[in-house]
Amino acid sequence: MNDNDRWILSFYRHSEISGAQFFARLAKSLPAGPIQFDLTKHFADESQHAWYWSRAINDMGMEPLKMTFAYQDHYLEAAGMPTNVMEILALTQVFERRIIAQYARHARVRDIHPAVRATLELIMEDEKWHIQWVGDALKQMEEKFGAERVKNTYERYRKADEEVYGRLIAEHDERVGHILDKQNYAF
Amino acid sequence: MQRNELIKQLAQLLRIDAARVTEGAKLTDLVADSFVLIETVVELQELLDITLVQEDLDGVNTVAQLLDVCQAKMAA
């Protein structure tokens, strides 16, 4: 594993921890019900993912780097603060789709360490359920907020995500460029 | 709910001394990070039985501004 691999895996780990912390807080705040139930499972998954990355880095004979920012930190700056559960879930849906796309790309890179491939595949399975439950919850929220508002909120965060992702890729191209270069894909 | 009661409730949600929650206090100065603020705003809506959307909080920076928005929603 080179320094760039260590950096990106540490970044994944750090972002999973941030997600777990945020959802843990929300799971404490929300009233009992289906959203609280699924959110509790969601934060447990994110914690588990952070552990998977810790284990993968360890299996490769390294230690995680201490990171100063998570992917999610940039959303608030780009799209403003979500104020209710619908807005939080719309942002979550955008984030989960970004994660699954990023992990899928990473899994296609030729010659990645078996521990990394196994971890990516393990996490992507959970992410499918995350997208499913959040999508279902957003659908239910159309009754309260209106389908148009839910759609517009999702779209606002999707645009913010594109901006954040583009900026991060530009800033850290030397570390992540090889993951995005299709010439490095095995399939 | 009276204004001073709202401030007390907000201090409880923020888990800080009520003396720090003055009308002019900046919200970002009262929280360790933005995620605490999101959590607090969600809890405040549960407590007051109101729904806020992002536009409601455009330009809201202080405790007074947040409470004004909440009271307007409660009165609506």
Question: How does this structure look, described?
Answer:
The complex is a heterodimer of chains A (187) and B (76). Chain A has helices at residues 3-29, 34-59, 73-79, 85-108, 114-145, 147-171, 173-180. The mean pLDDT of chain A is 91. Chain A has one domain: Ferritin, core subunit, four-helix bundle (Ferritin, Up-down Bundle), CATH 1.20.1260.10. By secondary structure, chain A is an all-alpha fold. Chain A is globular. Chain A starts with a helix and ends in a 7-residue tail after the last helix. Chain B has 76 residues and is mainly alpha-helical. Chain B has a single domain (3-75), classed as Orthogonal Bundle (Non-ribosomal Peptide Synthetase Peptidyl Carrier Protein, Chain A), CATH 1.10.1200.10. Chain B is built from four helices and no strands. Chain B is globular. The relative contact order of chain B is 0.19. Chain A binds chain B through residues 21-22, 25-26, 29-31, 76, 80-85, 87-88, 144-145, 149, 153, and chain B through 34-39, 41-43, 45-46, 51-54, 56-58.
* Name of the CATH class of chain A: Mainly Alpha
Question: What share of residues of chain B is helical?
Answer: 55-70%
Give the helix/strand class of chain A: mainly alpha
Secondary structure tally: strands of chain B: 0
Q: What is the CATH H-level superfamily of chain B?
A: ACP-like
Give the number of helices of chain A. 7
Tell me the CATH architecture of chain B: Orthogonal Bundle
Low-pLDDT sequence parts of chain A: none
Mean pLDDT of chain A: 91
